[in-house]
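Cont'd.
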Amino acid sequence: MGEEYDVVIVGAGITGCGIARELARYDLRILVVDKEEDVCCGASKANNGMVHSGYEPKPGTLKAKLNVRGVELYPRWAAELDFKLVQTGSMVAAFSEEELPALEKFLERGKVNGVPGIEIISGDEARKKEPNLSPEIIAVLWTPSAGYVEVQQVVLALAENAVANGVRFLLGAEVTDVLVEGGRVQGVVTTRGTFRSRYVINAAGVYADKVAEMAGAREFTIHPRRGTLIVFDKREGKHLSCFIGAVPGEYTKGGGPMTTPDGNPLWGPSAIEVADKEDTAVSAEDLRQVIEKDGRFIPNFPTDTVITYFSGNRPATYTEDFFIEPSAKVHGFVNVAGIQSPGVASSPAIAEMVVGIMKEYEPLHERPDFNPYRKRFVPFRERSREEQAALIAADPRFGHIICRCEHVTEAEIVRAIHSAIPARNVDAVKRRTRAGMGRCQGGFCGPRVAAILARELGVPVTAVTKKGPGSELFAGRIEDLRLEKGAAK
Amino acid sequence: MNVDVAVVGGGPAGLAAALAAKEAGAPRVLVLERDFELGGILQQCVHDGFGLLRFGERLPGPAYMQRYIDALAQTDVQVLTDSMVLELTPERILYVASPAAGLLAVQAGAVVLAMGCRERTRNQIWLPGTRPAGIFTAGAVQRYINMEGILPGRRVVILGSGDVGLIMARRLTLEGAEVEGVYEVMPQPGGLTRNIVQCLEDYNIPLHLSHTVVDIHGEKRLTGVTVAQVGPDRRPVPGTERYIPCDTLVLSVGLIPENELSRGAGVELHPVTGGPVVDESMATGLPGVFAAGNAVAVFDLVDYVSATGEVAGRSAARYAAGELRDGPALAVQPGANVSFVLPQRLHPERVHAGVAFYLRVKESKERAQVVVRAGGEVVKTLLQVVVRPPEMISFTLTASELARAGAADLVVSVE
Ligand SMILES: Cc1cc2nc3c(=O)[nH]c(=O)nc-3n(C[C@H](O)[C@H](O)[C@H](O)COP(=O)(O)OP(=O)(O)OC[C@H]3O[C@@H](n4cnc5c(N)ncnc54)[C@H](O)[C@@H]3O)c2cc1C
Ligand SMILES: Cc1cc2nc3c(=O)[nH]c(=O)nc-3n(C[C@H](O)[C@H](O)[C@H](O)COP(=O)(O)OP(=O)(O)OC[C@H]3O[C@@H](n4cnc5c(N)ncnc54)[C@H](O)[C@@H]3O)c2cc1C
């Protein structure tokens, strides 16, 4: 039998990591487990990173409440955890008179939900803020409080701060069973051991229904809804500063062009129900829809500057609302499920709400030594030439540019591999440093990143993976393969 | 640090430029190369066939480069390897990061941009499907096999019949991988005929023209691809899909001149070549900044690349010495069946011996004629047995031919 904890959190997405970080304030032994080799591998790695202002959810829903509260809390998270939060507002566009009532409806909803500064402005006023908008847009619902984050940076910040405050992360550990005795949760069984705990928090994204079922506490079902996003070259980042979406209709459900905090134009997402939770393929049809739909907002955008595209699955429930409740069937088992959009925007409020649920189970004692601060390492590419010179003088590995598109240095990659949440594969290095996220998509730096990973992890380069076991990059060393062949003969 | 000529890139174009700048009398010439060694992409091109025009021999890539590296060693040209140029300013200051030298600011009298090209990725051709390990560009595979001693996969499908892809089909086969086939979306191959014969036919590797990959399968490592035939509109023909199990997909779907530095400095780029607009001295639109090789346009013979490097290097030396200030120029335009022609601008009064032109056709044709016109007047014609898009055409326009053009813009067509 493995170690004992007070709380085990299943899922290291933004939900699980947010909860871990907020619970770290209290005198609790906390373990976060995830089946993937890194944090932020589920829906949290494939979304717009938009901190929605809160006009969209139906008033009275949990989504409406937590979204608006989340927006309120984000600046504090950003200040304490030192991640980029860019607050440029967001827009919903009407192209015709027929779409105006829909804007009015969202204006009303926004007011009821408590969205600050929400208003409808004319197309011309909107073009003053965003000069490249289509001249065909006649009116815009404007919400100044909307913001944007790089979700992987937020999740890493949360996880690192949690670790600094004593939370343990066990990655590459899939939960295969939840232990329940006498109606009380007792812990989890994972592919890397069994861990006893008094509480289990289920933040398993699209798999939350499966994990709940393991506990005999399935009170909802999840049906994955795939969304595809397209990223363009940073050099086209000037077209737009905020998000602009369409009035949700049959075909134009949500989505629209925006610019990420790192400066890349991002289009999408589409929305399509899929049968398989793992189905994050991108179809030609998804791509066609996003290009056609989002192209309406900014005519003349050069879509041939595409860098990449990917899909994520939203963990939708049939009620379409978040499902955040202590199980009625199993004491100590808390479901934090159905966290689809605006799950990113709501995450600080979700964490706050889960702390509230925990306090109902038992009084929690604040730790006097809790440190809410985490300092981001400012990347080489964002520094002044003087600072860059000083970095190289102190450590020559900063002078060694590995990713030529994003100007990521060897020192930063080594740092990522030995950080509080160590990067153990190529995609994990990419999430932390942006190496391979540029226009050549790792064509040049791939071999170098693989070699550094091999060296730092002390494994042969042929053991290096793209995203965990099973995704090995290479068949093998040519020498070894020749020997094998020789031996076979 | 102050230099007369700074060369960005130590590949064939850059080294030819550095040597020429030195020979033309530039006192301080500096080569900046981000890789550990000089040679550029030719370091990994171990097959032979380089230098036929230049040296009358068929050399392997590294041997071709060695001649330049050796020649360079006889000069006082300064070389910094493992040194990446981060930025070029319009005032010709280069910011360079290097583990050994730190962060350098180099003020150059003239600059030669010779950054080469990069490969188009799966996303730039909008391939749908999953995102597993096992998808590589042909150049990356070449580097893995020839320089790192690593075999990327065992059962391979190649998409695109560009030269690098064809060469890798042979290489992968020789290293024990099974190449299921090469698929090409166009009705004709993208690479040189000699490579089709020597790399595919000699090894019984099938080439499927008018075909493309329409889906990619596998979550962690590639498990297979679906291919389909395409119609004349290049869209997949429903019902022709075929699933091929494989662990590796190699892409040889085009090269893009590398011009982030040029763009950052404000150098005008050409929409078709993807490289700087240049004149007969390989000068870009930005004063004192010259360009050469694959950074200007993708050449198929390294001999041409070296030639443009020499012109750029010589010109850069003259600029640094106070000559070659900009004056009125003619435009050189692509006419019928020409996708691009270099140079795009011309100063007739500067041409003494002759100007090398490079062009690519849009469509194949037998018994064709290259025609240069000035204001409707034919100033030169050149017979070609056959013209094909993958095979670049080069010819020289002499000073006397150019004199016939007068001040009229030139139009180059293939008829
Ligand atoms: C295309 C798209 C765009 C979106 N845009 C936005 C947006 O702009 N703004 C916004 O607010 N929201 C947006 N969302 C929603 C947002 O991404 C999600 O609400 C949020 O990421 C959910 O986070 P999570 O931590 O709950 O889930 P996830 O990130 O999916 O994390 C769940 C984790 O649980 C792990 N897990 C599952 N099963 C097990 C098991 N058995 N054992 C161990 N671990 C397990 C998984 O590996 C995963 O890491 C978008 C979603 C999509 C798909
Ligand atoms: C993968 C690949 C395979 C090829 N195979 C063949 C072949 O088999 N036969 C053939 O005839 N041609 C081949 N070519 C074409 C070949 O590239 C050219 O013939 C020739 O090598 C181009 O020379 P170059 O000097 O312009 O570019 P390169 O050889 O690419 O050299 C450019 C150099 O610039 C450096 N550089 C770029 N940016 C910076 C910076 N910011 N700071 C410092 N240094 C920088 C690069 O590291 C590189 O060394 C191939 C091209 C590619 C991409």
